[in-house]
Amino acid sequence: MSAHPKTVLIVDEDPATRLPMIAALERQYRVLSATSGEAALALLSREEADLLLVDNDLPGIAGLEVLRIVRENYALAEAVMMAADGSVDAAVQAIKLGAYHFIRKDCDREELRSVLRNASDHQDLNRQVLALSAQVAESDREFVVGPSRSMREVVELVQRIAHLSATVLVLGESGTGKELVARLIHRESERPEGPFIPVN
């Protein structure tokens, strides 16, 4: 485990949900908790949280509104929405607003830990992409490889295909660095002096 464990913020009014989650996570994470959306946002103004577990049905500011504010102000935080029922509509809304995942509040401890572990890995990858992007911006020609095996494999693949005279399709979720990879391919290609035109 890292010397500095990540911080999880649990936002749920119900102690019957909140307290077991704290017990399930406190050995792997630094755990904070709040009982309302207002309390959670006030806490986030003072404390940094890497991962959030947010109840969909909060008193005061609703869970989806908390999620929207978190996405706008704490872009690298990963949020997992929770609900007492498995409402498909609520899940769809949460994912559209940028939630990493949506779980039932009565999920077992192993599922909870697994979802947070995956959210944490996703966050680490996004941070590495941002760091790589910043380093590439400083150097037109150098590939900078971080400690992640996945990132090294991406860069090695780019170096292998950049000189091919073929169309390349880069796939991935929003925010995972597809345009960055495309720029790297362009810079290492036979025509780096040509224009690079991103189209959204």
Properties at a glance:
single chain, 200 residues, alpha/beta, five-stranded parallel sheet, 5 strands, 46% helix, 12% strand
Structure description:
The protein is of the alpha/beta class. It is 46% helix and 12% strand. The protein contains seven helices and five strands, in the order βαβαβαβαβααα. It has helices at residues 15-25, 37-44, 63-73, 88-96, 109-138, 149-161, 178-188; strands at residues 7-11, 30-34, 51-55, 78-83, 101-104. A five-stranded parallel sheet has the order 2-1-3-4-5, with helices on both faces. Helix 2 (37-44) packs parallel to helix 3 (63-73) and helix 6 crosses helix 7. The longest helix has 30 residues, at 109-138. It is elongated and about 60 Å long.
Quick structural summary:
This protein has helices spanning 15-25, 37-44, 63-73, 88-96, 109-138, 149-161, 178-188; strands at residues 7-11, 30-34, 51-55, 78-83, 101-104.
How would a crystallographer describe the biggest sheet? Answer: 5 strands, parallel
How large is the count of helical segments? 7
* Order of H and E elements: EHEHEHEHEHHH
Shape: elongated
| Strand segment tally | 5
Query: What gap, in angstroms, lies between the N and C termini?
Result: 39 Å
Portion in strands: 5-15%
List low-confidence stretches. 140-144
Integer average pLDDT: 85
Q: What is the alpha-carbon Rg in Å?
A: 20 Å
What level of helicity do the residues show? 40-55%
